[in-house]
Amino acid sequence: MNAALPVDVLKQHLIDPEICIRCNTCEETCPVDAITHDSNNYVVDPDICNGCMACVPPCPTGSIDNWRLVVRAQAYTLADQLGWDELPREEALPEAAAAVLPPADATAPEPPANVAYTAAGASVPPWSAAHPYVNLYTHKTPVTATVVGNYRVTGADTDSDIHHLVLDFGELPFPVLEGQSIGILPPGVDAQGRPHHARQYSLASPRDGERAGYNNLSLTVKRVTEDHQGNAAHGVCSNYLCDLAKHDTVQVIGPFGQTFLMPNHPRANLIMICTGTGSAPMRAMTERYRRRIDTGENGRLMLFFGARTERELPYFGPLMKLPRDFIDINLALSREASQPKRYVQDLIRERAADVLGLLADRNTCIYVCGLKGMEVGVLDALREVTMQSGQDWTILHDVLRREGRLHFETY
């Protein structure tokens, strides 16, 4: 009689739908296209996933870091995963499968050496960053916040309707750090009759609140009326938020984010590169520095900020009132009638000597936030600036990522 074949056990990679905020980071990061999604869930194809772990560090919520030991022939299918509202319970393996289990201390697969740093930015925070709290509130257990302010921060005569929204949490704990984000649950249901998923927004306020000493925070929200191709589109959550009035309440989940965090050690320098509402985390970090301007703890701040016109730059007025010896501001305007068309990468090249000076300082961290398309332009500019000085950008780029000093948050 033939001996029974050994049971093939799979450590299956799954995404927790209760925590996932559908930000698409995992799908964009996966080097083998094992991750896909529908209007309900993000899922991992067990026939494609090789356990490289490239998608795990960039996930802002940790929802991607879930695993189940299953008999390979009984692995959860894409159809199974797309229909979940929560992860299934961990089931005991059959006796034949238990005999071939990995060691008790085995963890998720280790990434191959060649995918350790596949993303443009770091997968670790700066060494001195404060400890972040994440996922304190989920889709099932959101926290209620009250609107205490809602102000338009772009010119009323422009098509760019961007609002500064202040939310107060009262006595409920909601600790956050500069660079983190939250999820907003818009009311109502989608076309399939399901409650809307959360939309993610970066914090525009520092850790001690929009109003210092109060349990509040602020967001920078652009009213979406068209997609990136210029077609008419109604942003469900952005329009909801922009239309809120004082004393209205919203359902919030989070906070999220464990790597896009500012350094905490004295005299740390920040190079901040952003467009539009990507200014939110830069505002939070700048305000953190401004509030301690007399302590002697601050390093240098250098900002590259892009928009079509000055009137469409959120926070333009307050930004221009900051002391010039406190922050080095470089505005890239692409549609200003009286100026040549320029983008943030153009200004990085123009300020090459100063950028290089900061890059040479191990206390410097770089933050990039805005539309996904800006990543290539920024990296190309940094590469050119570095190479012009005779340095090897490949080596510097790897050092910046490994030391948690180059961070991207694009959408």
From TrEMBL:
Which residues are NADP(+)-binding?
A: 202, 222, 277, 334-335, 341, 370-371, 409
Which PANTHER family does the record associate with it?
Answer: PTHR43314
- Record-given protein name: Benzoyl-CoA oxygenase component A
Domain named FAD-binding FR-type is located at 140-262
The cofactors it requires, by name, are: FAD
Q: Where are the transmembrane segments?
A: none
Q: Where is the 4Fe-4S ferredoxin-type domain?
A: 11-40, 42-69
Give the E.C. number(s). 1.14.13.208
Q: Which Gene3D superfamilies match?
A: 3.30.70.20, Nucleotide-binding domain of ferredoxin-NADP reductase (FNR) module, Translation factors
Tell me the organism: Achromobacter deleyi
Gene that codes for this?
Answer: boxA
**Complexes and interactors:** Homodimer.
Q: What keywords does the record list, in alphabetical order? A: FAD, Flavoprotein, Iron, Iron-sulfur, Metal-binding, NADP, Oxidoreductase
One GO molecular function term of this record is: oxidoreductase activity
